[in-house]
Amino acid sequence: MPLETGDIIYMDGGAFGHIGMAYDANTVIHAQMQGNFHKDPNQTMEGGRISYMVDGPNTRVFRPPWAKCANADARKLELKQVADAIAAGAVYGAYRAVRLLIGSSDFGPGAYGRFMKYRDRYNANKGTPARFAEAGREVIKTVTCSEAVIVTYQLSFPLGEKPFFIGLDGAHAMPRTLRTWLAANGWTTV
After folding, report:
1. In whole angstroms, what is the distance from residue 15 CA to residue 100 CA?
2. Among candidates 13, 11, 9, which has minimal Cα distance to 21?
3. Which superkingdom is the protein from (predicted)?
């Protein structure tokens, strides 16, 4: 299945599932202990067989309703730029994965405060992207898989622009919570 930039890939497995985002038609960006927030090819080859990450039996791909977005191509480019900025400095935080079990996934005052902090960091350095890799200039220092994708969307779209601005607290939203939110907010399964 061809991916589009911004598709969110949910893989059901393990205790909580896993989330990634299509960086482009051939690349998925996701956070995990091995590799932090990084890009992987959607296509792999083993023993002469080609397989695709998104074609797994327990995988669902959610696509935002781009037809509702007047400047979809510009927003897709912004998603890639934000994802690159986060990937430059973020590491996978195992303790953050534990933190998913406590607190609310609602976009409340705590989530808003973190969003503002990340937005300010992103805006301060987006003119010189190499700075995001410098200590103290990271957009976000530690992430989980769902948090990295949620924050990427939140920094790419204006606050409250549903269904593109993901209205969840990335620090407390498990992959399955994000999957449920996407399905309830007009994203289609492709």
Report:
1. 12
2. 9
3. Bacteria
At 58 the pLDDT is 84
DSSP code string of 57-80: TTEEEEE--GGG-TTHHHHHHHHH
- pLDDT in the model for residue 169: 95
Q: How far apart, in whole angstroms, are the C-alpha atoms of residue 31 and residue 91?
A: 8
> For 20-108, where are the alpha helices, taking DSSP H only?
72-89, 94-99
**Cα distances (angstroms) measured from residue 51 to each of 27, 42, 56, 186:** 13, 8, 9, 29
Torsion of CA 101, 21, 55, 41, to 10 degrees: -120
Distances in Å between the Cα of 23 and the Cα atoms of 39, 46, 67, 77, 134 are 8, 23, 19, 9, 23
Work out the average pLDDT over 46-68.
78
User: Which of the residue ranges 17-26, 43-52, 102-111, 176-185 would you say has the lowest mean pLDDT?
Assistant: 43-52
Instruction: Give the integer Cα–Cα distance in Å for 105 and 101.
Output: 10
CA distance 146 to 89: 17
